């Protein structure tokens, strides 16, 4: 996404030793116009507190601001996504089964243009 000129907020890039993960993630989510959620086997694994918390936060932001969540499926089937979350499975998603990461980034840039250089995505 950065190669396409998009401003990206990624929690592990912004956290420093001793920082509060919750506070940094809250700030990042609150400031983001969109949340690109890459659903993968690791993301949907049991006991993934932070991924669930981030997705719940994006749903809350979306309840106020409208469409925010942009899902990407990576190495997952529709059945796996439905089992994880029927609500997120209902969303039109990009999938790495049919597109490269570069192709997905181009689609994101097209979606965000002209705001792509002005808004933050996470």
From TrEMBL:
Gene3D superfamilies: Toll/interleukin-1 receptor homology (TIR) domain. Pfam families: TIR_2. Residues 1-108 form the TIR domain. Coiled coil: none annotated. GO terms for biological process: signal transduction. InterPro entries: TIR_dom, Toll_tir_struct_dom_sf. This is TIR domain-containing protein. It comes from bioreactor metagenome.
């Amino acid at each position: 996404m950065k190669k396409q000129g998009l401003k990206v907020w990624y929690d592990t890039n912004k956290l420093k030793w001793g920082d509060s993960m919750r506070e940094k993630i809250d700030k990042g989510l609150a400031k983001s116009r969109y949340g690109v959620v890459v659903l993968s086997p690791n993301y949907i694994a049991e006991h993934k507190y932070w991924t669930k918390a981030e997705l719940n936060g994006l749903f809350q932001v979306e309840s106020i601001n409208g469409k925010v969540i942009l899902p990407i499926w990576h190495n997952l089937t529709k059945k796996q996504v439905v089992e994880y979350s029927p609500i997120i499975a209902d969303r039109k998603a990009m999938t790495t089964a049919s597109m490269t990461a570069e192709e997905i980034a181009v689609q994101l840039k097209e979606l965000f243009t002209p705001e792509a250089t002005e808004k933050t995505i996470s």
